């Protein structure tokens, strides 16, 4: 009797859930249809709802029919197709990795596709549209495989996001180098990289729609296996599911969907992250959406609504002539960055993102020998940087210049080159010191100042001045960079202050804010003329071009002050980097100490970015390498990290100026090329780790046992 009553009672609840799910799905379909109709009526031509209807029914004039059928209808179709592809890909990647922050963006799929197409454009080869989609698919799949392989299934949020962000930064740096080296061949690629659903005809949508349908069907066929994977690998194996094969197949299908979207409209940011996040609350209210066979298509519908809604919002808020130049992806990236920050605030801190460095205490003699070697290497780098470049000098030329007996050519070369060398060396030391402070505070050896959004804020401020005030001098650009970095740091610290600046929340909030600043930076660059865009890209690549001694002076002052503070508080740094309890037991106010060190790191990073542009990975590589050489005591780590940072940026700046002279590459591009492999090496070493932070209550998928059948 009891069993029968329970079963009978569950049937009405199941029926109500199914009815609610059907109502939600119908409402989403209607929303997408309404947004598509509104999108059809927006544009530079005066074509309203009546003209659209006539064009669709074949009764419009030639002009209106051409606008609707050749431009607006393909644009709306591309918006729907791209949204469905990215939404379903994001839901599948989150299911297979069991991580709510997995998406084509955080797994570097978009960055990989962008690099593949950038390489194709740089070669000057002309291939059919469908073949370029295959190339984009290959690049995105390789990038996703690297990130998932390094982070592992079920990896914590911090590890996954840091792995994807770092790989995307390295890949993006290589692509930016291609844009700067081959500006004519890659013309328009930068604008394309930020995603626009505008189409020149229906051919692209027609060619990629079957590919997207194939990927969606493949994911639906694997839905039961995905449901089993949600229980864990061991439980899935017990149910007869081939875990490795299922995971590889799902990643391939998700990369296929992402590549289709990228080929059609460029990388539309964060749709794959936001769509599944919006579906999860619906799944908690309607149990029918818990299963993958309904969850994944619903995420596709939400993705379509997000893309079309962003395009409608953009064209409603911006005048039609300007809206044409603004990529839809810039809007979705801003929205997605906000989603990432909100999700980061719900993350629970679990003590660390990666395994701590292996404890080793070298002897004093080894430490002194390391210092001597590094100082010697830095002196050699400095001499080489002064002598080499587009014009090669001799040591005698430098001596003659110091004595006032050099010729006009030598004087000009040294007067322009020495400030660049000093800017590179000081910026490297400042970023290394800032990275040491950030890694100590967050207790995360894979963190760097860039994850706090400081570099992104500085870049946004500088690009804003470069693109709107072309005549602005170096002091104006530096001031704008410092203001942007300070504002971004205040925002990140304010959002992460709850709970005493816990490192998990701090890192994820910083990544989200950095993504937002990157979207706004891209927006300003795209809206300017090609000359300013190239100028901004050059600055963002970490160029020291045009630096003078007055430009270097503020960086030198802040570097000296920051070094003094860090040295005086070195024991406090040791305590903060240990754990949560030890500093409190010794009477240290942990939140206050963290905030103080973070403020110093912001000052160092902002002045470094203002003096030498956006240079990544130095704040990550130098502190970690220093700890590997001399142990974890900051009395030793600080000088070694600063020497390593200065040498690394000095070498990067030298190579960028000398290898392909007279053309140049920014130091930031070179450090990214060096830093990305080192980062991947560290991730491989740190695969064996303890529990990682997970998303807060309600963000995961809960599977009722009574409904799990195979």
Give a short account of the largest sheet.
Answer: none
Helix/strand/pairing category: mainly alpha
CATH topology of the largest domain: ABC transporter involved in vitamin B12 uptake, BtuC
* Helix run count: 29
How would you spell out the order of helices and strands? HHHHHHHHHHHHHHHHHHHHHHHHHHHHH
Low-pLDDT stretches:
1-10, 350-356, 688-710
Q: In the CATH classification, which architecture of the largest domain applies?
A: Orthogonal Bundle
Percent in strands: under 5%
Helix content: over 70%
| Record field, number of beta strands | 0
Average residue pLDDT: 77
How many domains?
2
Q: Shape, please?
A: globular
CATH class group of the largest domain: Mainly Alpha
The CATH homology group name of the largest domain: ABC transporter involved in vitamin B12 uptake, BtuC
Distance between the termini: 28 Å
Using the CA coordinates, give the radius of gyration.
Answer: 27 Å
